[in-house]
Amino acid sequence: MVKKHIFKTMTMAGLCAMLAMPVQAAEPAQPTEHHHDNAISGFIDYGELQKELQRIEANSKGSVSVDVAGQSFEGRDIYTATVGTGDKVLLIQSEIHGNEKTGTVAILNMLKSLSGNSKAAKALRDEVTIVFMPMMNPDASEGDKRRNSMTWSDVVADYPELAAATPSWNYLDRGVSQSYDYGANPGFDVNRDFNPDLDYVPQAEDFPGASNEPGWFITKEAQVSRDVYKSLQAEYGTVDVFIDLHHQGMYYVDGTPDPVTLSLSAQFVPDPSSAEGAKYSEYADQYDYDFSRQLNVAAYEELQSYGNSKFTNISLYSQGLDLPGTALGSYALNGSGTVLFEVRGQTQSLGQKEKGQLVKSVERGLTAIVEGVADDSVYSLDPEDYEDIPLTSYSPSSN
């Protein structure tokens, strides 16, 4: 049975309308929000997720604990699934954008593997504690869309002091794209609602904000992720690794005609000890870019090991970004090693055609990171190897 779990502040029991651009580099264009070129029926919907988590927990003989961390705006439960009892803590979340579903399937597959009776699975569970959040934005998942279903009026109802504030830059309440009417169905990009100050309380003067400024924790979904993160900090002292699973557009490995299968990244804010990152100087002592790069190298080398196959079409997501309002940027500043996975295309644009390949790419990359953290081998990797990973290109090379 799925159990209710109340996350307290310091304990754990049991672009479409971008108003400003970062100085270092423009934020990559956000993918089309809603299209139906292919069916998505083969991916996991909310009801199926609930049943599958219950099944995995029941079959795990106590090695997997499924809990409710909180609720979405529309009141759907947001789940965590925890496996392992080790001191090294990894938090892995998927589907903060509801039309980016591949990571959810990969997480469920990993839970089955990690909860098994094999000697390798038991050894991993002794070394690491992994907390999966397989569907961060269930309202958007059910609505087959990128954004949540919260309106600015709903925000003001929760925070009356924001009544005179300009709506945040990540709120969309106008326009029609691919037959999706945002005027009738407004919402927030939840992955721009994070703040490095995990105790931040919304202030009217901080709105509308911009992509290179922190978010506000005004959405229910971002609040749940933050509360899980804080509870792990309180219990373990730190969250060693944070991984966020996404989809991207149709891009290419720089200098080649090869479509990208998976983009990785370790960089979401400038180094707080640098001149460019001076505004984050209070986080300099805990920010660990080298560790983030090592984690990315672990995933890259694993996928490259498959030789001449689509698994080798791996690139670096846009670099030089300043995105403190993302979960990755905020948690990196709080001391976590961070990894972004961006698989090829949106769920609907590929449908069943490449589902298996993309899911397997995510699984293999994640497994390499988990194993590298568990046996400490990740720490022996040269972080400078990260700089040799080819960049993502927006068009194929003619060479």
Automatic annotation (TrEMBL):
One of its GO terms (molecular function) is zinc ion binding. GO terms for biological process: proteolysis. This is Peptidase M14. Belongs to the peptidase M14 family. SUPFAM superfamilies: Zn-dependent exopeptidases. Residues 42-399 form the Peptidase M14 domain. Residues 380-399 are annotated as: Disordered. Pfam families: Peptidase_M14. Its cofactor is Zn(2+). Keywords: Hydrolase, Metalloprotease, Protease, Signal, Zinc. It comes from Planococcus rifietoensis. GO terms for cellular component: extracellular space. Residues 1-25 form the signal peptide.
